[in-house]
Amino acid sequence: MTALWTAAEAAAATGGTVAGDWAVTGIAIDSRTIAPGDLFVALSAARDGHDFVADALARGAAAALVSRIPEGVDPARLLLVDDVMDGLRALGAAGRARTQARVIAVTGSVGKTTVKEMLRTALAPQGRTHAAEASFNNHWGVPVTLARMPADTEYAVIEIGMNHPGEIAPLARLARPHVAVVTTVAPAHLEAFGVIEGIAHEKASIYEGLSEGGIALAHADVDTAGILFDTARACGAQLIRFGSKDETEARLVSAEVAGERTAIRAVIHGRDRAFSIAAPGRHYAMNALIALTAAEAAGADPEAAMQALSGWSPYRGRGTRERVTLGDGPTIQLIDDAFNANPASIAAALEMLAAAEPEGQGRRIAVLGDMLELGPTGPALHAAIADHPALARIAAVHSVGPLMAHLHAALPGALKGLHTPAADAMAEALPARLREGDVVLVKGSKGIKVSRVVDALRKLGQAAGDQRRGSP
């Protein structure tokens, strides 16, 4: 495997010192996930990463990035810097500087990971493409992604997230994208920002990192669109507006759901575009429009991008669908959207559920967990879900968590399902409330752990599979 960094290159990038001659093929920050040849970065968070250097090397790491020499560790396998986090940022900056890749950076209250994965799919057939793993989008995730970027990369997609003011701009400046995207602005992390305008300003700060002559993509349908437009122009960026309005440069004309696919019609810079994706939902159509527009802005062939996007489908926790037989009970359709939640993504998920077709006498069932980090507005935002038009096509809403208790109280009697304070209780009680042909959506913030409901349903399905195979 080609070396990602030699000892000399890594030392020059970080200003660190090395005593040995080694080469690494990857970057890791968790000693438990070390692959042979990795550079282990000894970050300090809940635990001091230096305590795990010996274990990382024993597991196959070629070297470690450290700020002191751990006891019993061979100095020849270390890159010694003054500060590990600063060293990681420097390595990421060097990774970005040495490549000629066209870089796209993506942020937004909803959809940034989905758009990042769509871009990975759209660009991969057109050139060597590098994109963040999972949601590597924070103060360490972005430098890791950049440091992992091979020097011969042709397209790079960098996801940038935030929890507090002032996080996005420094990461955008590190990534120096040619194209910067704000997927949308919605109530999320209100606890830290107070008002949605504060969120819009923070998201728009991604444009501050654009390379000279860079392109800014901004959602024209949101109430805070003006903040995005003004910031993009102030940064000297070429502005591309997307959404459903006629005046946008990239307009979603229609999104027709048929079974497990969505047929999309759009107009981008005056050209008609028609394609489909292997996922049902208007929110996926808008994400696909963003990805296609960003890919074209980065110089990719839009026809090839559309063809590649036709094979895209979401991955676990992001709206995947599967059939599950619950032990010796009913077979249901499970929609796993349990990774995260805010008012905008809950609305999109409910619309997706409302468009789903149950089998036989099945029903549409929602299992919703708390939306976290909404601050004082949290109770009201949870209760407001009861007014969403999609609920007219949903049979019951089960809820999990103290904040979702406000939704439970606001629901009319016919919709009011079970409420539990925690996910484990819902996981235990829900299967008995389901029947043949039901479509079951599970959605909530990661911290409320409604993924345990998904896991419980899947385990019942595995048990049923074992019984059919004759396992003891």
From TrEMBL:
<dbReference type="GO" id="GO:0051301">
    <property type="term" value="P:cell division"/>
</dbReference>
<dbReference type="InterPro" id="IPR051046">
    <property type="entry name" value="MurCDEF_CellWall_CoF430Synth"/>
</dbReference>
<keyword id="KW-0132">Cell division</keyword>
<comment type="pathway">
    <text>Cell wall biogenesis; peptidoglycan biosynthesis.</text>
</comment>
<keyword id="KW-0573">Peptidoglycan synthesis</keyword>
<dbReference type="GO" id="GO:0005737">
    <property type="term" value="C:cytoplasm"/>
</dbReference>
<feature type="domain" description="Mur ligase C-terminal">
    <location>
        <begin position="331"/>
        <end position="445"/>
    </location>
</feature>
<dbReference type="InterPro" id="IPR005863">
    <property type="entry name" value="UDP-N-AcMur_synth"/>
</dbReference>
<dbReference type="Pfam" id="PF02875">
    <property type="entry name" value="Mur_ligase_C"/>
</dbReference>
<keyword id="KW-0963">Cytoplasm</keyword>
<keyword id="KW-0067">ATP-binding</keyword>
<keyword id="KW-0436">Ligase</keyword>
<feature type="domain" description="Mur ligase N-terminal catalytic">
    <location>
        <begin position="24"/>
        <end position="68"/>
    </location>
</feature>
<dbReference type="GO" id="GO:0008360">
    <property type="term" value="P:regulation of cell shape"/>
</dbReference>
<feature type="binding site">
    <location>
        <begin position="108"/>
        <end position="114"/>
    </location>
    <ligand>
        <name>ATP</name>
    </ligand>
</feature>
<dbReference type="Pfam" id="PF01225">
    <property type="entry name" value="Mur_ligase"/>
</dbReference>
<keyword id="KW-0133">Cell shape</keyword>
<dbReference type="InterPro" id="IPR036615">
    <property type="entry name" value="Mur_ligase_C_dom_sf"/>
</dbReference>
<feature type="domain" description="Mur ligase central">
    <location>
        <begin position="106"/>
        <end position="295"/>
    </location>
</feature>
<keyword id="KW-0961">Cell wall biogenesis/degradation</keyword>
<dbReference type="InterPro" id="IPR036565">
    <property type="entry name" value="Mur-like_cat_sf"/>
</dbReference>
<keyword id="KW-0131">Cell cycle</keyword>
<dbReference type="GO" id="GO:0005524">
    <property type="term" value="F:ATP binding"/>
</dbReference>
<keyword id="KW-0547">Nucleotide-binding</keyword>
<dbReference type="InterPro" id="IPR000713">
    <property type="entry name" value="Mur_ligase_N"/>
</dbReference>
<dbReference type="Pfam" id="PF08245">
    <property type="entry name" value="Mur_ligase_M"/>
</dbReference>
<dbReference type="InterPro" id="IPR035911">
    <property type="entry name" value="MurE/MurF_N"/>
</dbReference>
<dbReference type="GO" id="GO:0009252">
    <property type="term" value="P:peptidoglycan biosynthetic process"/>
</dbReference>
<dbReference type="InterPro" id="IPR013221">
    <property type="entry name" value="Mur_ligase_cen"/>
</dbReference>
<protein>
    <recommendedName>
        <fullName>UDP-N-acetylmuramoyl-tripeptide--D-alanyl-D-alanine ligase</fullName>
        <ecNumber>6.3.2.10</ecNumber>
    </recommendedName>
</protein>
<dbReference type="GO" id="GO:0071555">
    <property type="term" value="P:cell wall organization"/>
</dbReference>
<comment type="function">
    <text>Involved in cell wall formation. Catalyzes the final step in the synthesis of UDP-N-acetylmuramoyl-pentapeptide, the precursor of murein.</text>
</comment>
<comment type="similarity">
    <text>Belongs to the MurCDEF family. MurF subfamily.</text>
</comment>
<dbReference type="InterPro" id="IPR004101">
    <property type="entry name" value="Mur_ligase_C"/>
</dbReference>
<dbReference type="GO" id="GO:0047480">
    <property type="term" value="F:UDP-N-acetylmuramoyl-tripeptide-D-alanyl-D-alanine ligase activity"/>
</dbReference>
